[in-house]
Amino acid sequence: MSFLLKPRIFGVLLFDGFAPLDVFGPIQFFHNLSQQYPLEIIFISKDGNPVQYDYKTQNIKVHCSFGNTPKLDLFMVPGGMGTRQLVNDTETKEFILKHCRESQVVFSVCTGSALLASTGFLNNKRATSNKKAWNWVTSISDKVDWVHQARWVEDNDLITSSGVAAGMDAANFIIKKYYSDEVALEIANAIEYEAQQDSNIDHFASVFPASSNKQQM
């Protein structure tokens, strides 16, 4: 119950080339949640400047830079083509690892798990990722217990989702886990979304078998 009542800060890492649905799908759930519970959602970029999502069609303003980000309770890392460069960006990786260690809940969507893996945070943990980009993501680290057949994977307070739209199912699960089934259902109904309830059901694991991926998202 204390998780529900205490003010919480939910930080979302943004960067050039993030996938918009990775962010804005789950954020719709947490926005609705913030209407009922003390939850502040903040967007973060390295320098505090606006970023552009995939295909550079829109500037998105943020609230914080790496230097003035407060301590986070929930930390979300999305995916997108921009992750390809960031897995080699030392400053970004250090920021991610710091907040993964400090946050109560860590949540990645799509190839965001590649960023987590690049920091070593996923070592000896279970995780999943985008099935179309599976070969690339899993090449980042062989110290992760990668789960291919999964819509999302829970490892204690770490939740990693499969590709893009799967982030909404994982967001629904997080709300169920830390708030209640009733709150999660109320929010899903309000946004008219029928969330997948079984994390083991992942149609796209067969659409994009692990050994035959050719394209990467």
Automatic annotation (TrEMBL):
Signal peptide positions on this chain: none
Note the Gene3D superfamilies from the entry.
3.40.50.880
Q: What Pfam families does the database record attribute to this sequence?
A: DJ-1_PfpI
Every copy of the DJ-1/PfpI domain together lies at 12-176
User: What is this protein identified as?
Assistant: DJ-1/PfpI domain-containing protein
Species annotation: Boothiomyces macroporosus
